[in-house]
């Protein structure tokens, strides 16, 4: 449809996603950062996304919303109806060079069909291990997981290139039987995290009414079952038995918030476990600045973006082991990967009781996180776009 682009041309990238603002997730943040980096280089991004009741508050240029319905099993998540009679005319008028989809389902499938119709290169970022999310489906979980794996394989083989956020995910995709090329490009980390000053603890202690002596454990992420946050609350109960001046701050919202608050109440941890609710980006950076250790228990990650952001902010991390996080964390150097609740508790206590070690690991974490700079990774993505366009033509 378009001329072959050279490295100096400004690309026009169509991004199809099943989630976008005001919904907040790692996928949404990944898209936001990619959009920011591409546009800072003079490229055009056009986002095709679900509509939400409050989407009107986000008056964002070049975002095209699809009629959507509430998801029956997930509060605040809306499912886009992948149909629009004006889409072909819109794509023609925009003169897109490449289509980049961020889901293999609703709008992702529409993006794939659009790429085929207009003979555009199709790139798919495999953000999510969907078979870990079958608790959101209303029917048999084992059957759901098997169907999802088959669908993923079929969808990937429709694409010209699959982007995996980690080597672990690349291996998994290959094991599915995917024959198309797979490149590893993690989601980048915004510069604002590298600029955080970890000595600025005033805001977080005032905001949550904490004592000057308190040490702060931080968790950031959606409050959902797959994030395993109840594990952190269990650990906090054990830590409190020997170290009293320690608090756990849980940043984010999600479907499990009520259950997690109830669990903290049942364990008499209401004065030790704090829930931030929804906060803005500036407040999030202040939470990272005021924390002492970042904690994370999810085993369903494809990259663990918040872990990289915590490292960029200069925090040592203690995480449950998962294959993708073993690519992000240098065990014993800038954090710890643990296998049991007891080990999780012991490593946190070890860092709390050894301030020089804790600060030294935080410094190493910030240095090691530089390899995830959004600038570097956006350049890699642009190279893949250019190659896909040239190969298609």
Write the topology of this structure.
Layout: E1 12-16, H1 26-40, E2 44-50, E3 63-66, E4 68-70, E5 78-80, H2 87-94, E6 98-101, H3 106-117, E7 122-125, H4 141-156, E8 161-164, H5 167-176, E9 182-184, H6 191-194, H7 202-207, E10 215-220, H8 229-239, E11 246-251, H9 257-266, E12 273-275, H10 281-290, E13 293-296, H11 305-312, E14 317-320, H12 325-328, E15 335-338, H13 341-352, H14 355-368, H15 374-392
Parallel strand pairs: 1-2, 1-6, 2-3, 6-7, 7-8, 8-9, 10-11, 10-13, 11-12, 13-14, 14-15
Antiparallel strand pairs: 4-5
Helix pairs in contact: 1-15, 8-13
Radius of gyration: 21 Å
* CATH fold type of the largest domain: Rossmann fold
Our count of helices gives 15
Largest sheet: 7 strands, parallel
The strands making up the biggest β-sheet line up spatially as: 3-2-1-6-7-8-9
* Derived structural class: alpha/beta
CATH-defined superfamily of the largest domain = Glycogen Phosphorylase B
Number of DSSP-assigned strands: 15
Structure description:
Helix 12 links the parallel strand 14 and strand 15. The strands form three sheets. This protein has a seven-stranded parallel β-sheet with strand order 3-2-1-6-7-8-9, with helices on both faces. It has a six-stranded parallel β-sheet with strand order 12-11-10-13-14-15, with helices on both faces. The chain has a two-stranded antiparallel sheet with strand order 4-5. The chain is globular. It folds into two domains: 197 residues, 3-Layer(aba) Sandwich (Rossmann fold); 181 residues, Glycogen Phosphorylase B (Rossmann fold, 3-Layer(aba) Sandwich). By secondary structure, it is α/β, with parallel strands linked by helices. It contains 15 helices and 15 strands. Helix 1 crosses helix 15. The N terminus is likely disordered. The longest helix has 19 residues.
């Amino acid at each position: 449809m378009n001329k072959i682009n050279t490295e100096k041309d400004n690309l026009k990238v169509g991004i199809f996603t099943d989630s976008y603002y005001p919904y907040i997730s790692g996928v949404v943040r990944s898209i936001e950062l990619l959009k920011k980096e591409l546009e800072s280089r003079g490229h055009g991004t056009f986002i095709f996304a679900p509509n939400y009741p409050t989407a009107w508050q986000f008056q964002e240029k070049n975002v095209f919303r699809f009629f959507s319905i509430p998801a029956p099993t997930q509060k605040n998540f809306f499912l886009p109806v992948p149909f629009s009679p004006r889409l072909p005319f819109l794509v023609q008028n925009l003169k897109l060079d490449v289509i980049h989809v961020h889901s293999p389902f609703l709008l992702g499938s529409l993006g794939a069909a659009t790429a085929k119709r207009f003979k555009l290169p199709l790139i798919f970022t495999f953000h999510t291990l969907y078979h870990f999310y079958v608790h959101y489906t209303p029917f048999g979980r084992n059957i759901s997981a098997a169907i999802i794996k088959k669908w993923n394989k079929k969808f990937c083989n429709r694409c010209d290139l699959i982007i995996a956020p980690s080597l672990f995910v690349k291996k998994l995709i290959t094991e599915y039987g995917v024959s198309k090329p797979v490149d590893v490009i993690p989601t980048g980390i915004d510069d604002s995290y590298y600029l955080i000053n970890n000595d600025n603890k005033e805001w977080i202690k005032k905001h949550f009414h904490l004592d000057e002596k308190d040490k702060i454990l931080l968790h950031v992420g959606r409050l959902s079952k797959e994030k395993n946050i109840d594990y952190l609350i269990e650990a906090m109960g054990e830590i409190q038995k020997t170290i009293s001046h320690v608090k756990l701050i849980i940043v984010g919202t999600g479907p499990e918030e009520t259950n997690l608050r109830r669990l903290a109440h049942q364990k008499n941890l209401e004065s030790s476990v704090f829930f931030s609710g929804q906060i803005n980006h500036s407040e999030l950076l202040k939470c990272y600045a005021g924390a002492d250790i970042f904690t994370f228990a999810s085993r369903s990650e494809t990259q663990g973006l918040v872990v990289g952001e915590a490292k960029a902010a200069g925090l040592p991390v203690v995480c449950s082991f998962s294959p993708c996080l073993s690519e992000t964390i240098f065990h014993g150097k800038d954090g710890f990967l643990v296998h049991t609740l007891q080990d999780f508790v012991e490593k946190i206590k070890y860092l709390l009781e050894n301030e020089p070690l804790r600060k030294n690991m935080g410094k190493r974490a910030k240095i090691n996180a530089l390899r995830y700079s959004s600038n570097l990774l956006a350049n890699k993505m642009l190279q893949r776009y250019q190659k896909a366009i040239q190969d298609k033509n």
